[in-house]
């Protein structure tokens, strides 16, 4: 899609009329009939025809409570109607504020995502339509941000939905390299020998059982003339999780291609921040491996090393995400010493049992970060909910033969246990946050027959970065 600003809509051509629930007064002048059977409810739309036979689409914005996820109504509307659009369609946005226009563009762009990338038959490609937004003030910058954001969401959805035989750790590295050239940031991919030399022992241990070697991806975007990094993002990049020797049940095992959802957010956010040219220095680190079963696989009972120097007793090889994150987090601190450190991971089933599919688990001892992230989460409808980090939970990670064990072996406190494990590798960083996005990164969707990627995290983290950049 291409987006442009216009002063006024041409009522003889196709156009879209967004309207709030129960309030058609603002658009009454454009309606060909006095009382359409439409009340502006969220996720609804109605087609009318103008005097020249042009299409007039009424799109419901719902109530004020729907403002945080306004993109959903436009995604649904465009997904179901854009096959009828011509080369151009207009949006009457005179009565929309900047946030609403931004959300509208994001939704329209999200509707362009094609999940059927690997079908043998040709999938109808979405035709390029120019969408013109009317407004008395120039909205070019908002339209560009909306397009970039929607594109970033679609790109990380494509990554998460990609099959694991294609989406190997090295594939993620190549994706990042290509992205860095397009968006002008620095990308470094550490491969097997680099990881061995630098001491990424936990990442290497997880990847031992796979024919696809692990990598660590480091993406740097620097807008400031200083070597100081404001924010570091660390993502779990397990491209397929069999559970290792602690093998998972076969039910839904095919969905374990999505276990790099945190990595996808990190990759997407760095690209988006670079395209938006935000005034910030940020680094994104992806620790990526495939957790497979082989004669070389690491075992329950093994003791492995880590980048931090701490030794880890392996209780469960299916608690592998926290191992690669431990190396990524510790590397971020020692190499970059960022002011803010955030890691994202599809880490535990426990957080899904705790919060369902409506919010990510948020873990931090920094209440300024927690408050900021919570407010942003509600604003963009990518919600987070804070869970405790009490010292009481540390006893469950004590090991007799190593510095720490990777799993408590209990059917309780799983998400908290994982967060406390990660905390041990943060060097007591005062502004660290862990987000467990297992329940919100991948799930049921009205746009796919099976579970698929949601795109969660791009708006949440980018808005956090924007807030810090503006300060």
Automatic annotation (TrEMBL):
Principal subcellular localisation of the protein: cytoplasm
CDD domains the UniProt entry points to: Peptidase_M17
E.C. designation(s): 3.4.11.1, 3.4.11.10
An individual GO BP term: proteolysis
Cofactor(s), names only, from the UniProt record: Mn(2+)
Residues where Mn(2+) 2 binds: 236, 241, 259, 320
HAMAP family tied to this protein: Cytosol_peptidase_M17
Protein name, entry field: Probable cytosol aminopeptidase
Gene designation: pepA
